[in-house]
Amino acid sequence: ILDVVPNHVHEDHPWYSEQPELFNNDPDCICGDYTCPWSSDIETCWFTDYLPDLDWTRPEVAQQVVPATVQWALDFDLDGFRVDAVPMMPRAAVRELVAGLGAALENGPTRFYTLGETFTGADGYADIRTNLGPHGLDGQFEFPVLWALRGWLAWGDSDAADVASVIEYSLETWQGSGSVMAPFVGNHDMSRFISEAAGHDLSSPWGDPP
User: Fold this and answer.
1) How many Å is the Cα radius of gyration of the chain?
2) Cβ proximity of 35 and 29 under 8 Å
3) Distance CA 203, CA 182 (A)
4) DSSP category for residue 45
5) pLDDT digits (tens, 9 = 90+) for 50-85
C-alpha cells in the first residue's frame, strides 16, 4: 500500500503550469490562516503555499487524477492506496477515485484496498464514517482509537476500560459499512508515540525535537 495525494500537487508539477484551470487558484488562502479557516474553506484552501489545490468540482480533474492513480497501481503492482487528506476534497471526489480504481483493478477475486486519512479529534466518528460504504473507501484510520490509546499508554490519563469503550463505540459506528479499519498510534502529522510515552519535551518539535 502506497500513499496517493489526490487533493494537491507541488507547484513545480506540470499540471499547475500547463493546466492552471484545474486548480483552486487562490494561493493566499492557506488552510488554517485566520482569513481562510478550515471550517469554511477546507475543500478549496491550499495546504501550504507551494501545494496548489486541485478543484474537484471540475470533471477534468477526475479525468486526470484517476487514470494516473490506476497506472501507478499497475506499474508498481500495488494492493491499495492510503488516500491522503480526504476531508479536503468533496465526497464525490472520493467516490470518483474509488469507482475508477475498482473498475480498472477489481475484475478478479481480489479487492483493491483504499484506506482514507481523515484527521479528526477523539469525537470525529461522523467525519470518518461519511466516506465509508459500498461506494466509498474500504477503510479509514481510526483517529478516535488513536487518541484513546495515547491517553492510556502514553499520557496515563485513562485506562484500558476507556479504550475498550471507544473501540466498542467505533465498531458500532462502522457497522454496516463493510469496512476494514486501521487502528494506529501515530503518524507523520503528530509527535511520535514513543516520545509521548517517554515524557519528552515536545514544546518545540521543529526547533528542538525530542
Assistant:
1) 19
2) yes
3) 29
4) S
5) 999 999 999 999 999 999 999 999 999 999 999 999
